[in-house]
Please model this.
Amino acid sequence: FIEQEVAWERPAVFIEFVPFKWHAIVPGVEYRAQPLINLHVVTDWAEQKGIGEFRLLDRIHELLAGLEGNTFMEFDIDSSATNHNHEDIVENIETYTCVGFRHLK
Model:
């Protein structure tokens, strides 16, 4: 996404679902997984004034921590990384995990 030729507004968040494996709780009926979800939080390098981008990450975390839905629960942060290997932007990758479940019958 960062190599796209069309410009996009920043800050921006791109969501990446990392491939994961389902584990049968009841074969053919119920499955569980602990997927990883990467949030690629992209800001302009020019905006970097100390820790401003980290405040944005904290705000995102406040909104997501503990999130639950019909097919997942226990949404929480797992790890963080900062990537400065781009010319004029900074990419922070916030990795979240949760317990996902799938009922087929």
In short: The chain is about 10% helix and 50% strand. Residues 52-64 form the longest helix (13 residues).
